[in-house]
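Chapter review: from sequence to fold.
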Amino acid sequence: MKISEFPAEFFIKLEGQDFLLGRLSINKMNQSFWVEIDIVQKESKKIWAHVGNLYGINELDEALDRSVQTLSDYLKTNGRPT
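The token string follows.
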């Protein structure tokens, strides 16, 4: 994947959720990437829950993969948002 402008946001549909989305905000700092992972309200994009941050990732594809896995792990541990 190639992204030319940062920060870049990706939204992930959450199964069984009509009003919430997963949001991955990817930023580039020098030669590495960092990602802020949140669950946001679908319409307003306001943060419903902060999942976490990942830092110092060398490849963009790895940053995306690890952030999706982190969101998935959060949802498994904390249950589906209600």
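Two observations follow directly from the output. The chain has a mean pLDDT of 92. The first strand starts at residue 8 and ends at 13.
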